Sequence to fold (151 residues):
Amino acid sequence: MTLEEVVSQKSQKSTGTALEDVLVSAKENDSLTVGVYECAKVMNLDPDSVAFCVLATDEEFERDIALQIHFTLIQSFCFDNDISIVRVIDTQRLVDLVSGESAQLEDAHCVLVTNPADGSWEDPALEKLHLFCQESRRLNDWVPEISLPGR
Fold:
C-alpha cells in the first residue's frame, strides 16, 4: 500500500465520521429532508436553505433508470447552486442514521441537510465536509464517495 492510499483511506474514515456527525446533529436540529421527491421540492422552493446533499446508491439504483435520472438532475442542481454533494453506498446505514435503527424508510436515496431559518445551527463537521468536497472537485472528483462508519 502506498502512502497516498494510506492517506486517502484515513481521509475517507474521518470524512465518514464527519458525515455521520453532521447527519445526527441535523436530525437533532430538525434540519434533514429525506427522499428524492421531498429533496427536489426543498431544492425548488428554497435552494438557499440547502447546506449539503447526500446521495445513496445501492442495488436498486443500478436497476432503476428513473432514479439515475433523478440523481443526475439533483447533481446538476447542486453544482449550479454551489451545494456540496457526496455519495454513500450503504443505504441501510444512512437510513439508520436519519430515521433510527428500527424505522424503515421507503426512500432514503437522497438526504439534504438544511439551514434553519434563524441560521443558528453550525457544525464544524459540516465545514470539514465542505472542504473535503472542495478538494475532491479540485481533483476532478465531482461527487466523492464516502463510507459511513459501521455500528
